[in-house]
Design brief:
By secondary structure, the protein is mostly helical. It has one domain (3-81): Orthogonal Bundle (Arc Repressor Mutant, subunit A), CATH 1.10.10.10. It has helices at residues 3-17, 21-30, 35-46, 51-58, 62-81. Helix 1 runs antiparallel to helix 2 (21-30), helix 3 (35-46) crosses helix 5 (62-81) and helix 4 crosses helix 5 (62-81). The model has no long low-confidence stretch (mean pLDDT 84).
């Protein structure tokens, strides 16, 4: 995990842990994702970007973004179901 990803993850966890336990758990679930999925989730749900905007930033097809979000949500759900 590169320094940018570590910083983003720590920022998310610290930002949310005092506000809402559920958001804190979501941030912890994000820690289980690989960097490409984590970045996609960050752009979509933290920055609020549309899939087309994310695709342009990440230089990949929109379908790839939909796929990454689907995989990420499945992995995060698995983590959260175990909490």
């Amino acid at each position: 995990m590169n320094a940018e990803n570590v910083f983003l993850q720590k920022e998310i966890v610290e930002k949310w842990k005092d506000k809402n336990e559920n958001l804190y758990l979501v941030a912890k679930a994000m820690e289980t994702l690989d960097p490409i999925h984590k970045k996609t989730v960050y752009y979509a749900y933290i920055d609020g970007l549309k899939q087309e905007e994310i695709a342009a930033i990440m230089k990949c097809p929109v379908g790839t973004i939909y796929s990454r979000l689907s995989v990420a949500k499945k992995k995060m759900k698995e983590f959260l179901d175990g909490c």
